[in-house]
Amino acid sequence: MAELVGLVQRLEVAVGRLEAMSSSGGGGGPAAASGVVSVYVEAYDKLLSGPVAQYTALSQKIGGDVQKHAELMKQAFTCQRQLLVTASSSQKPSDSVLTSLLAPVSKVIQEVQAFREKNRSSPLFNHLSAVSESVPALGWVAMAPKPGPYVKDMQDAAMFYTNRVLKDYKEKDKMHVEWVNAYVSIWTELQAYIKQHHTTGLSWSKTGPVASGGAPSGGAPAPPPPGPPPPPMDLDKSSGGDSGATSRNALFASLNKGADITKGLKHVPDDQKTHKNPTLKAQGGPLLSGPKPFAARPTAAASPARTLPPVLELDGKKWKVENQEGAHGLVISDTELKQVVYAFKCNNSTVQVKGKINSITLDNCKKLGLVFDDVVGIVEVINCKDVKVQVMGKVPTISINKTDGCHVYLSKDSLSCEIVSAKSSEMNVLVPNKDGEYTEIPVPEQFKTVWDGSKLVTTATEIAG
């Protein structure tokens, strides 16, 4: 079955080449028109017919959600190949056009990640997570000047889940082990491919037309931009001339009546009160027995959030790492024992701290990976979400507060570390085994407290599941 799927994959690649050779317009460029396929497109085809085809074949054998996920991944690689064909025969366009050319790949990446989120109850969730965590590696085409290391970072992001698959199926089903090896080899070979053909970024042709990302011919033109907003309302004027001012004067005069203002109200007899006359409730039409249900008032469109510049600097004794977005491979070296590291509002990034320092604090970070050597004081995780902390050397204390999702990887030298947690959830500590793999142990989130006659005694309860 795997051989058959691999053959089909190679046939699809061949068909793609023929289509590129027969194309003579639509931004294909002279290379496509002359039937020439770029060397790096041919090298990419080998990647598709090799590890990608093997991963697809094994995914079909496993079936279920893994097979469906692999079909999306296959589509993502196909979209990327089309972009490579365009780049091989066209000059690099403007940023706006480049964004439209990258859109198909970006869309499939989002679909791959959304598939995982919609299937959290899947028995193959670790497989889906491994793919979902690493699929952003296909965004290397937009990375410069180091797309290769970016793919390596994304590959490392999947390691946590691929290790889980290996742990669960190592003794049960070797096919899943082969699946992990095939999937990981995709990113390994992609790094080698990038190093050879796109070392500092996607290679565009030096000749040919500038790549175009416009809509196909014959399509409807883009709608015109909306007109300017209406002028602000002038509260001092109204359509009735001076009637606005007159009405306001009358209103103020009535309010100045004080208690006499109620003399103008009409008395309602009991037979017209709905709470004393049930027959009125059965009649059609709206009832005036109470206020209308609450409806949120329309609000003005929120102003776009201000994006602060990223910071990575040494300020006195403090290393400041702030506002980093998608920054993988941040390294803090040349450290001293008296220095501290403070990471604030860093999302989808990785930070490595080399040497021995005093303390590290992660504050308001999301999907941040921290790797450090030695800390003599404390590592604090505060107001964070989905962070991973790996100890390479020693640390006496790790504090986790108001955090949802925290994985702590301990080294053999840090097994005596104290982990203090409060108001946090989804915490796991991973302890190394003799064979180099990790054993995952959840940190209790539920506690039982009883009065023993003299004091309160609190014990951790077993976590269900």
Mean of residue pLDDT values: 80
Order of helices and strands: HHHHHHHHHEEEEEEEEEEEEEEEE
Work out the strand percent: 15-25%
Shape type: globular
Radius of gyration: 32 Å
Structural class: alpha/beta
Distance between the termini: 36 Å
Oligomer: single chain
Flag low-confidence runs: 20-35, 214-242, 284-301
Strand adjacency order, main sheet: 1-2-4-6-8-10-12
Specify the biggest β-sheet: 7 strands, mixed
Q: How many DSSP helices?
A: 9
Helical percentage: 25-40%
Q: What is the number of strand segments?
A: 16
What does the model show?
About 14% of the residues have low confidence. This protein has 465 residues and is α/β, with parallel strands linked by helices. The protein has nine helices and 16 strands. It is globular. Helix content is 37%, strand content 20%. The strands form three sheets. It has a seven-stranded mixed beta sheet with strand order 1-2-4-6-8-10-12, with no helix packed on it. Strands 3-5-7-9-11-13-14 form a seven-stranded mixed beta sheet, with no helix packed on it. The chain has a two-stranded antiparallel ribbon with strand order 15-16. α1 runs antiparallel to α3 and α3 runs antiparallel to α4. It starts with a helix and ends in a 5-residue tail after the last strand.
